[in-house]
Amino acid sequence: MNLLLEYREKLIKLFNEYDLFVVPVLKFALAFVLFYLTNSYYGYLEALNSIFIIFILAIVCAMIPLSGTVVVGIALLILNCFGISFEIGLLAFCLYILLLILILRFVSEDSLAVLISPFAFSFNIPGVIPISLGLAGSAASALTSVCAVVAFSFTRNLPEIKELVDLGDLSSLEIIKQAMDMLFSNAEMIISIIVFAAVTMAVHSTRKLLSTYGWSTAILVGSVLYIFLMIIGNIFLELNMSYVVIIFGTLCSAAISFVISFFLFNVNYEESRYIQFEDDDYYYYVKAIPKTKITDAEPAHEEQSAEV
Amino acid sequence: MNNKRLKKMMDLAMFEELYGKEDIQISRYFFADYLVLGLLQNFVLITIAYIIILGLIIIYNFDYFAMNFADMNLKPVIMYIIIVYAAILAFYSLIVIIIRTMKYNRAVSKMSMYDHKLKSLDQISAGGESVSAEKEGNKKDESPA
Fold first, then answer.
1. Nearest chain A Cα to B42, which residue?
2. Rounded to whole angstroms, how far apart are CA atoms A187 and A112?
3. N or C end: fewer C-beta atoms under 10 angstroms in chain B?
4. DSSP A43
5. From CA B59, how far away is CA B24, in angstroms rounded?
6. Are A274 and A146 in contact (CB under 8 A)?
């Protein structure tokens, strides 16, 4: 544990010293991975299936705020939907515009979850989304987790929709109707929405209410609640989801959330700030480097480092 | 250089350029104007969203509408559409009013702290000027005639 604390301190120091380079590199890496996965899973438009284009987009995203990466990622997904057919591309565009106008404009800080959710579900670790949102966000992040479920439910059906379109039997209206049926007549999506919202709020409330071991308890509460609600939903709605996948996936999600919370969420990774001002006599160019401090640190960590 | 004054100036500069940028922009509006701007944006966005939703509903039920449109009594349908639109608009307008009111009050309180810090910077600068004026005066007295 002390070794981990040591590594964390080194990481924070490194970040604070070289944040001018580290932040763009991290943003580039995140954008590259997300866009690569988007093209791998949903690469229906041949023109965009190029590592060079992903590379260029990732470089652009390294220089813009994180919300810009989300917009570019969603645009990439919508363009790939146009590769299936014009109607599906239009439906994807309408869906994301609706999510943006009705929900995401109020919780724009968490919108990265909407981009990550299809891949979290594909890797069978969907629990990481509501748990991380509950840890990092606010009670309103429950709305973001709802959007994440809707985004995944739409993208999950894209291969099936592509097969229908490729058959060539359906008209444009029938294609849209089929796609909307797959999205909205989906009991698994309804259950997932309820579970995600409940888990996000439970994790957030637990983290806020408990001063000692708040983060760890919140993750455990979120994981247990997620497993419990998914099993209940599976039984009552006869969804035939694998219990092993639910439980194992949630355990992996909890482990990932622990790692994320340890390295990211309860430490101060504030970047150095560059400001300039002047008075009558001087121009001042100031670099403010935040001191390494741990916010909301759990007493257990402090006790262990004190013992050393 | 006066370290106390420098620290105050840095504090104010960090607020202006980093943490308080949004609050400074918000405080430039009167409360009513800030609210009306938000409500206008909300009106446009909700109207666009409602048109999209209506379009999707019509596409989904296109067969039904195509067969029954001629026999349909449009008046209650249009009334229903308008009432639902008004309800959704009212709901989101309420959310926008609550959020914007909270943001405005927070911005105003932060700006009053900013003004307070500006005044204390003025006091430090004025104190520094009077001390340096005194030193200049002493130097003139001490210099050989």
1. A101
2. 25
3. C
4. -
5. 46
6. no
Structure tokens at B100: 């914007």
* DSSP 8-class letter at A280: S
Residue A55 C-alpha, separation from nearest chain B C-alpha, in angstroms: 30
Long-range contacts of A96-99 (CB under 8 A, 24+ apart): A96/A151, A97/B48, A97/B49, A97/B52, A98/B49, A98/B52, A98/B53, A99/A147, A99/A150, A99/A151
Token couple for B66: 């195509």
What is the count of residue pairs from A and B with beta carbons less than 8 Å apart? 51
Check residue A64 and give its pLDDT.
Answer: 92
Beta strand extents in chain B (DSSP E only): none
Helices (H), A169-298: 172-184, 187-209, 214-237, 243-260
In the chain, the amino acid numbered A101 is I
Please count the other Cβ atoms lying within 10 Å of the Cβ belonging to residue A56: 12
pTM here?
0.82
CA distances from A269 to A18, A68, A304 (A): 12, 21, 22
Residue listed under structure tokens 């002047």: A278
Contact B88, B53 (CB under 8 A): no
Of the candidate ranges A2-11, A126-135, A245-254, B4-13, the one whose mean pLDDT is the lowest: A2-11
- The CA-atom distances, in angstroms, between A132 and each of A30, A108, A286 are 16, 15, 35
Report how far residue B15's alpha carbon sits from residue B28's, in angstroms, rounded to the nearest whole number: 15
Q: Do B49 and A97 touch (CB under 8 A)?
A: yes
Judged against a pLDDT cut of 90, whether residue A225 lies above it is answered with yes
Q: What is the DSSP letter of A213?
A: S
Token pair 């969203």 in the structure block, residue: B49
Distance from CA of A94 to the nearest CA of B (A): 7
The whole-angstrom separation of Cα A198 and Cα A226 is 8
